[in-house]
Amino acid sequence: MSTPDRTPATAVVIGGSTGIGRGIADAWAAHGIETHVFSRSRPAGPGGDRLVWHPTDLRDSEQARKSLRSGLPDRIDLACYSAVYFTSRREPFTATTEADWLDQFAVNVHGLSWTLRAALPALRAAAPGLFLHVSSEVVYNAGPHRSGYAATKAAADSLIRSVAQEIDPADVRFVQTLPAGMVDTPGIRARRPAGFDYGDYMTPASFAPLAVELARTRGTGYAGEALVVHEDASWSSVSRNLPVSQSRPVADVGV
Fold it and tell me: Alpha helices, DSSP H only, in the chain?
């Protein structure tokens, strides 16, 4: 049985100024949803003027929690957590600085927990509210030179799945999504050499159809799922096919 089309009034996207979060925020705003973005940088380019921006630096716990407390709207029908911190490059665990290690936990794990605590009351009031978390294939594959990223994304995945078991899906439905391959984002471009060919990379817009579907259905039929989005903008459940690892071989075994 299909679910009636319901247009949510308000959405929030944490980490929605660029990348996958921006693709989701743009999709929701384009469908008439009042969309608030919490991020370090102001959403720029086409569609940026449709987004309500709240300056938020998740590496600064006091500022981030204050921004969430004061900026989250009273009504939240949809929430998406897409904020992520990797590092400037892939490197062995022993070469990762303590600052980078702590920043990965601050953004990838603690920021998610602050968002859940702040947004869940309003999402419950929307009944059913939808919480969408942008995950990663590294949760299922781990990989060399990505230890901090792998550890924090796995922790975030476990947090979402655990909280989802505490809350009636009639109140809030939790869905996770992740790309099937590499996505062309400013963060990725900052780690690639000049002249790199992004022709086979996905784009954030690939997530728009899923975002619209989840907004329309409030996650009906998808609660508890982790959905892999493919280059053609289709999606499938990780329960059917695990995502392919994006790790690169370690050239020097002694590293």
Answer: 19-30, 61-71, 98-105, 111-126, 138-141, 147-166, 186-189, 208-217
**Parallel, antiparallel or unpaired: strands 51-55 and 78-81:** unpaired
Angle between helices 61-71 and 111-126 (to 10 degrees): 10
pTM of the model: 0.92
The mean pLDDT values, 10 residues at a time, for the chain of 255 residues are: 56 97 98 97 96 97 96 97 90 94 97 98 97 96 92 98 97 97 87 88 95 96 97 94 79 39
How many other C-beta atoms lie within 10 A of the C-beta of residue 5? Answer: 8
How far, in Å, CA of 69 to CA of 87, rounded? 28
Classify burial at 20, counting beta carbons within 10 Å of its beta carbon; exposed 0-12, middle 13-18, buried 19 or more.
buried
Instruction: Report whether CATH 3.40.50.720 matches the domain 10-237.
Output: yes
Helix 111-126 vs helix 147-166: crossing angle, to nearest 10 = 30
Tokens for 63, please give them.
């500022």
Q: Is 184 left (phi over 0), alpha (psi -120 to 50) or beta?
A: beta
154 in Cβ contact with 100 (< 8 Å): no
Q: Is the dihedral of CA 154, 12, 121, 226 positive or negative?
A: negative
Using alpha carbons only, give the angle 61, 65, 75 rounded to the nearest 5 degrees. 155
- Confidence at residue 241, expressed as pLDDT on a 0 to 100 scale: 83
Report d(CA 250, CA 35) in Å as an integer: 42
Place of tokens 């929690």: 65
Instruction: Tell me the C-alpha distance between 145 and 147, whole Å.
Output: 6
From the CA atom positions of the chain, what is the Rg in Å?
Answer: 17
What integer pLDDT is reported at residue 173 of this predicted model?
A: 98
